[in-house]
Amino acid sequence: MTNDKPRILIVDDEESLVETLSVLLGHEGFDVLSAVSGAEAIEKLENDLDVVLTDIRMPKVSGIDVLAQARAKKPDVPVVLMTAQASLQSAIQAVNQGAFYYVQKPFTNDELLAILRKAADFGRVRAENRTLKREIRKRDRRAQVRPIGKCRSFVEALEVAQTVAPTESTVLIQGESGTGKEVLARYIHELSDRSENSFLSINCGALPESLLESELFGHVKGSFTGAVKDKEGLFVAANGGTLFLDEVGEMVPATQVRLLHVLQQHEVIPVGATEPVQVNVRIVAATNADLDEKIRQGSFRSDLFYRLNVIAIHLPPLRERRDDIPLLAENFLERFAGVRGAKPKRLDDSALQVLLEYEWPGNVRELENALERAVAMTTGDVIAREVLPKRVTEPEPVPLVSEAMPANPPLEVIERAYIEWVLRSEGGNKTRAAEVLGIDPSTLYRKLARFESEA
């Protein structure tokens, strides 16, 4: 109930009856609101209510109309109908349409009170059940999207996400491709007060500039060739929810300006339009690029970076969280089995050892891909080493630097060699190596990824 007293809305076009019932129900412990027309009653449905008591026969807006509006606006609030003999059939039909009950005029005070108290109790239980079911669904969704891992650096990232999720702060997730940035973004959304609304995502590096702007901000009919009708952009579609901008570092400067305007003014201007549209969207952005370097190069705006980088979360690569590989593998195998309605397959010791030793340049996404292939290639219950992809079982070593050093090596080669030496000195621990080098771990990860791609 809305408070200690059940709140009831009394509706009848006979003012004297409304006054009489208001006094009666007020004395009997109800918090009373009243309306002397169906139109007035519909307006008062915006209040917190526990019961609606309405006459059926009223001019212009009938009690059946009030019932329909109450069912649409307040589905948990029971509606009791008052009816004379002439409209008894209408009352019976209304009960079939969702009214809680009807009481036939003339009625006794005790008869009316018994029905209204039962209605108030019924509405309270129904509202509590609906809230409980919503919380169960929310809990189940959170469990389904919760990132998996026990590695210290990963757990620290998860703790930051859990701390900031209930806030409205913009989050920037950094990490290599395939580390689970979108999974973490969805987890943040599910832990937030926006979880009942939309979570939408877009890869900013996968679309050309003109199409990306149209997808993000929308467009009006005739704004460009092919714009045959108005289009709602993702900012509007995600209103009240969360928008995940993946690979935000790939945005061209013009689109960055438009995004900055949205973050500052909380409004979008569709392509070809002149009037802004107010939006209420939380932004979670992600990148595997070195935004600091892009800022120095002039390809990424520093003011946008500071708007996005309110809360920074770094996801470590899978090779830095090898203890999580068995957990992730088990989760993937259970999920694949669930899709097929079968018993989960398991890895034999040699297959698991291969997974633990591989470097996983594609991170969690590559592990998922490798296990999905292995499941498809395995007829029994146990996955053997031989069915894993060859790139995993027989990886080619990729040195960071060439064995043959030129007489006067360029600065980049010296940098590579020094980073490799520090890594070896620290036993391959990149977090400690970054401290020795005096750089942020995310910068070290990106440098190593670039070295490998250029090798």
Automatic annotation (TrEMBL):
Residues 147-376 form the Sigma-54 factor interaction domain. Transmembrane segments: none annotated. It comes from the Bacteria. PROSITE patterns: RESPONSE_REGULATORY, SIGMA54_INTERACT_1, SIGMA54_INTERACT_2, SIGMA54_INTERACT_3, SIGMA54_INTERACT_4. GO terms for molecular function: ATP binding; sequence-specific DNA binding. InterPro entries: AAA+_ATPase (IPR003593), AAA_lid_NorR (IPR058031), CheY-like_superfamily (IPR011006), Homeodomain-like_sf (IPR009057), HTH_Fis (IPR002197), P-loop_NTPase (IPR027417), Sig_transdc_resp-reg_receiver (IPR001789), Sigma_54_int (IPR002078). The modification 4-aspartylphosphate is found at D55. The keyword Transcription regulation applies. This is Sigma-54-dependent Fis family transcriptional regulator.
